[in-house]
Amino acid sequence: MKTKLCLLYGGKSAEHNVSLQTAKAVIGALDLNKFDIHPIFISTEGEWMKGPQLNAPVKDVKELQFNNGEEISPNALSTSISSSEKGEGYDMIFPLLHGPNGEDGTVQGMLELLNLPYVGNGVLASSAGMDKVIMKNLFAQAGIPQVNYTWFIRSTWKANEEQAYESVEKEIGYPCFVKPANLGSSVGISKCSSRDELAKAFQEAFQFDRKIIIEEGVKAREIEIGVLGNDQPQCSVPGEIVPKTDFYDYKSKYEDGDTALIIPAEVEEDVADKMKEIAIQSFKALDCSGLVRADFFLTEDGRIYMNEVNTMPGFTPYSMFPLLWKHTGVDYPTLIGKLVDLGLERYQEKQTIKHTM
């Protein structure tokens, strides 16, 4: 029996196009002898469109943005997916959504309410992992090493912009990075070395979120590790990102591939082991499940800082997560299968929880 896999992709997010690229890559990697692929496209306006079953990889992401599909309500998932009548039910939901309204726990919460099995992190891990401020606060509580950071909401900044800039200069200094708190894929991120750049960076970041985070800039290598599992997570080999630009921005990641990925990273064994230990510690601090990509800074004098974890890392041709596992001995189709199995494992465990006295 083949697994009926429902793919959710697109989404009402600034990372909509990243999700389309992820969906295209995942569809191309799925073993059609093992999976029936059922697409649901979510537009930038939040409309849900159910498309026909896919029987072959797509050549262009435009093929995934079908306008002639069946428009459905997310509530319809409770009947169209869980129903076993006429073979309409799906076995697993795979949210291939990046950013708000998909990766942040919103869709995961809906799937939990409908009691449907799905791939990836749950509500808490997704929401905490999306909000960089909350994530870093939890990491601080767990004793995980990080660079200095501070944060602002838009109304506080608007009330006294100069005071906000002075606070950053006093607490963080230059260089620093300004980021929207609830976005990934390097959207809205700026590197600042002066007051003028800082002011422009605040304005840029606040276009994408009501909360921003400012982090200390350190001269360091960027090392990433894939984590896979539920209660007993495992780590991939480490990989290194060497951007040709000033930092690993959106264009480098998704448009021109203007960066070098070194896998495995050339780090000492004890350093790699320490990073893996911190990666698992971070995974458990957020109560993650399924997968994360753990991103680190490694300074010249050997200091290790946790940068962030990504609870739904991309699966594009330029994405690090599947490449890390490929070099660890888990190819792309096998990786997808493992993620589906992990989602089912978590779902089955939750079914044993009592909800009545």
UniProtKB/TrEMBL annotation:
A GO molecular function held by the record: metal ion binding
This protein's GO CC annotations: cytosol
Catalytic site positions: 15, 185, 319
Source organism, top-level taxon: Bacteria
Cofactor note: Binds 2 magnesium or manganese ions per subunit.
UniProt keyword annotations, A-Z: ATP-binding, Cell shape, Cell wall biogenesis/degradation, Cytoplasm, Ligase, Magnesium, Manganese, Metal-binding, Nucleotide-binding, Peptidoglycan synthesis
Main location: cytoplasm
Binding, Mg(2+) 1: 295, 308
Reactions it catalyzes: 2 D-alanine + ATP = D-alanyl-D-alanine + ADP + phosphate + H(+)
Binding, ATP: 132, 177-179, 185-186, 215-222, 307-308
NCBIfam families: D_ala_D_alaTIGR, PRK01372.1, PRK01966.1-2, PRK01966.1-4
Protein role: Cell wall formation.
Protein name: D-alanine--D-alanine ligase
Species of origin: Rossellomorea aquimaris
